Amino acid sequence: MVSIFVDGRFMGETSEPEKMAANIRMKRRSGAIPYQINVAYNKHLNEVRILTDSGRVRRPVIIVENGVRKLTKDLMDKLNKGEINWDHLVKTGIIEFLDSEEEENTLIAMHDSDITKEHTHVEIDPSVILGLSASFIPYPEFNRGDRVNYGAKMVGQSIGVFASNLLSRADTKSNFMIYPNKPLVKTNAYDILPYNSHPNGNNVVIAIASFDGFNMEDSIVINAGSLQKGLLWSYMVRSYEAEQKRYLGGQEDVIGIPEAGVRGYAGEDAYKHLSEDGISNPETSLESDQVIIGRISPLRFLGTMDRFVTGLENIRETSLRLRHGDHGIADRIFVTDTTDGTKLIKVLVRDLKIPEIGDKLASRHGQKGVIALIVPPEDMPFTENGIVPDIIFNPHGIPSRMTIGQLLEILGGKVAALTGKYINAPAFSSSSEKELREMLREAGYRNDGMEVMHDGRTGKMYEGKIFMGSAFYQKLDHLVSNKIHARSRGPVTLLTKQPTEGRSKEGGLRLGEMEKDCLIAHGASLALKERFDSDKSTISICSECGLVAMTDKIKNKKICPIDGESKIVDVEMSYAFKLMLDELKSMLIYPKLVVKED
């Protein structure tokens, strides 16, 4: 007997699992049961699995019966004329959706010419096997599989126009590109999806060459002239919100310019850019830690209501400030009410992000790199026609990654730029290399994409010819201006007395065991003293019992809680060690420190 499971629950047993699965498929195709149901018979597990739950990834395929596909030429003509639609094909059992479980019981042909009597389905188009992001990659079958994965991942990280209503949204953080392009070399996904209203990169002129070693290890040399003309510019918009909360006893926050005398008042200069209502004016330039919305709050109740007194000394300043390390311009201001009826203010701060050294760029083929050098256009290499590349890409990135798709894209981009026609390159049915070479030759160029180039600094011709064309590049969300982070002195945490964590809290960078080894190997062991002293403390220890002594501030003397006024020694240690001693004591473990005089 074979077990039957519906959405993971055991429902019974059957002696004819294959007949049962075939019966469910037949009913689904005839429309007797919903088309969302999938069934799979796993012989090796002795199970029939019926799946109806939401969230499964399912994809459409054309049904094949007795070696003949059910989507005939007549049906295709009717579909093109609009006489029937997609839903009709699904309801009449021409096309069905398979999930990963049912796919195990099928034999799917890639092309019509591959169909045999054994096949159960055929792909609508071979490129349908790719997901949404991967379907944006041109010539994917010429790349190694992992590079297609990386490319698909980075399509999702690219800065573009993420929503057509972005100017009326108030997302916590968003990026959008200012001058995006449609790629010259595209796939079917660009036509099917509304890509024109959601572009995500720029077409760049790319030369594959090394440039004085500045583009080592995947780094990119970029033309300063291209950046000045707006290449890969974007805005980052961050929203800040302040609520005028209400508290017990009728007390509430007040949004406005704080008065002098309230606790935490930052001085007149800190609030001078605010308008009368305590909110930054639109188009106000804001710097790190600057007040965006002025606010004062009552102190939390410390006792019963009758003991609570009002007055300036019982009000504290709780203004909303720009995140540490950020800067920008107040863009849009929304004043509204929350569902509880309290006043809510949102200020959107925009910051122009022009590509700089350290910003991450990537092609659609998983060839990612950071900008390592920005070169004036007059110092960049140039062709005999005077064309200067926007990006110089390192040739060492090609043989190890085997991204031949990128080379074909550069060739195709060059053809598209010369002929003014888009090059179509979807998976498994792209424009051939032979066609591209022929079109290049007809345009009066070398058919291999190579060009004679000259050094912009000396004017001398390079000995080797350089492969040059056009490629689509994306600017990724990993911007150096959002990540650069350093501190000397600053805030420390209350518990460990070590520096706080995180860039927004002015935190320090942790130095671990391996970083210590690097500094020692480098011969900079003195730097360790400074690094490992962040929570240095002097703790009084009783020399008799080895426990931490107490300090009586009033009498100005140190007493051991066990031995009284015994001999007490001051010991320098990390505060984290003292904390560990306290934690051991809380577990009833006696950590005795054996101290002796130097």
Name of the CATH first level of the largest domain:
Mainly Beta
Query: What's the average pLDDT?
Result: 92
Which outline best applies? extended
The CATH topology label of the largest domain is: Dna-directed Rna Polymerase Ii 140kd Polypeptide, Chain: B, Domain 6
Key descriptive features of the protein:
six-stranded mixed beta barrel; 20% helix; 34 strands; single chain; 598 residues; alpha+beta; 5 domains; Dna-directed Rna Polymerase Ii 140kd Polypeptide, Chain: B, Domain 6; OB fold (Dihydrolipoamide Acetyltransferase, E2P); five-stranded mixed β-sheet
What does this 3D model show about the protein?
This protein is an alpha+beta fold. The chain has five domains: 123 residues, no CATH class; 215 residues, Dna-directed Rna Polymerase Ii 140kd Polypeptide, Chain: B, Domain 6 (Beta Barrel), CATH 2.40.270.10; 119 residues, OB fold (Dihydrolipoamide Acetyltransferase, E2P), CATH 2.40.50.150; 47 residues, Alpha-Beta Complex (DCoH-like), CATH 3.90.1800.10; 51 residues, RNA polymerase alpha subunit dimerisation domain (DCoH-like). It is built from 14 helices and 34 strands. The strands form ten sheets. A six-stranded mixed beta barrel has the order 12-26-13-24-23-30. Helix 9 packs parallel to helix 10. The radius of gyration is 34 Å and the shape is extended. It starts with a strand and ends in a 12-residue tail after the last helix. 27% of the residues are buried.
Helices and strands in order, then pairings?
Layout lengths: L1 E5 L2 E6 L2 H14 L7 E5 L4 E5 L6 E8 L2 E2 L3 H9 L4 H6 L3 E5 H4 L4 E2 L11 E2 L22 H13 L15 E5 L7 E2 L1 H5 L9 E7 L11 E4 H5 L5 E10 L10 E2 L29 E2 L4 E3 L1 E4 L16 E3 L2 E2 L6 E10 L5 E11 L6 E4 L4 E8 L6 E2 L7 E3 L3 H5 L2 H16 L3 E2 L8 H10 L7 E2 L1 E2 L11 E10 L4 H4 L29 H9 L4 H6 L4 E7 L7 E3 L4 E3 L8 E7 H12 L12
Helix pairs in contact: 9-10
